């Protein structure tokens, strides 16, 4: 079982009146999701996975440890790093598997927000229909950090031999990727 539990509300610091504290509370919700991985052939097969951490980007997104908890670090650089670092990392990952973006039918992207999805659309060349599952997740449950991709995955209607790519960004700045085949 893969379990993702995000308790973003725990990072809200009551004494902090900064814009970052309030923006973080507004952008990130608490959420949990799970997926069972077995050999029953009821869902997609995990073909490959990869993690990439991009040097020099630790100040883009994450948390600082302060006396009264965790202080959100979130800069306007996130879309830029997605375009400059994440999109090429996705291409490199797919290349190691002998596939390209054109071969991927389902983009299961972390719906970090409207601007993040637009950055993915432009950087990866994903059409509006390809972003529909992530946009719908953002509209219905919001940004649940890592749990969100499992909500997006649950909404995918795939056919045999379809390829799907899960991609989620996070602190550090990093991207986690999983290539799936139905």
Strands, helices and their partners?
Layout: E1 2-6, H1 19-27, E2 31-35, E3 45-53, E4 61-66, E5 69-74, H2 78-96, E6 106-109, H3 114-124, H4 128-140, H5 147-154, E7 163-170, E8 174-181
Parallel strand pairs: 6-7
Antiparallel strand pairs: 1-2, 3-8, 4-5, 7-8
What does this structure look like?
The structure is a single chain. This protein has one domain (2-181): Peroxisomal Thiolase, Chain A, domain 1. The chain has 5 helices and 8 strands. The strands form 3 sheets. The protein has a 4-stranded mixed beta sheet with strand order 3-8-7-6, sandwiched between helices. It has a two-stranded antiparallel sheet with strand order 1-2. Strands 4-5 form a two-stranded antiparallel sheet. 33% of the residues lie in helices and 28% in strands. It is globular. It has 182 residues and is of the alpha+beta class. Helix 2 crosses helix 3 (114-124) and helix 4 crosses helix 5 (147-154).
Distance between the termini: 18 Å
At CATH level 3, the topology is Peroxisomal Thiolase, Chain A, domain 1
The percent range for helix content is 25-40%
Individual helix count: 5
Please report which band the strand proportion falls in: under 5%, 5-15%, 15-25%, 25-35%, 35-45% or over 45%. Answer: 25-35%
Strand order of the largest sheet: 3-8-7-6
Main sheet: strands, sense, barrel: 4 strands, mixed
Q: How confident overall, as mean pLDDT?
A: 90
Helices and strands, in order, run as EHEEEEHEHHHEE
Number of structural domains: 1
CATH architecture assignment: 3-Layer(aba) Sandwich
CATH homologous superfamily placement: Thiolase/Chalcone synthase
The helix/strand class is alpha+beta
**Shape assignment:** globular
Radius of gyration: 16 Å
Poorly predicted runs are none
């Amino acid at each position: 079982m893969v379990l993702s539990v995000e308790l973003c509300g725990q990072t809200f610091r009551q004494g902090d009146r900064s814009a970052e504290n309030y923006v973080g509370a507004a952008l990130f919700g608490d959420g949990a999701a799970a997926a069972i991985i077995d050999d029953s052939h009821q869902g997609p097969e995990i073909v490959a996975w990869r993690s990439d951490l991009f040097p020099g980007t630790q100040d883009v997104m994450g948390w600082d440890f302060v006396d009264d908890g965790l202080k959100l670090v979130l800069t306007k650089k996130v879309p830029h790093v997605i375009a400059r670092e994440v999109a090429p990392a996705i291409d490199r990952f797919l290349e190691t598997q002998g596939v390209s973006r054109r071969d991927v039918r389902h983009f299961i992207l972390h719906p970090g927000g409207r601007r993040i999805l637009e950055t993915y659309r432009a950087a990866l060349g994903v059409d509006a229909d390809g972003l529909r599952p992530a946009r719908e997740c953002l509209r219905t449950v919001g940004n649940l950090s890592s749990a969100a991709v499992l909500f997006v995955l649950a909404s995918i209607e795939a056919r045999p031999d379809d390829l799907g790519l899960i991609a989620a960004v996070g602190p550090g700045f990093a991207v986690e990727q999983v290539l799936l085949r139905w």
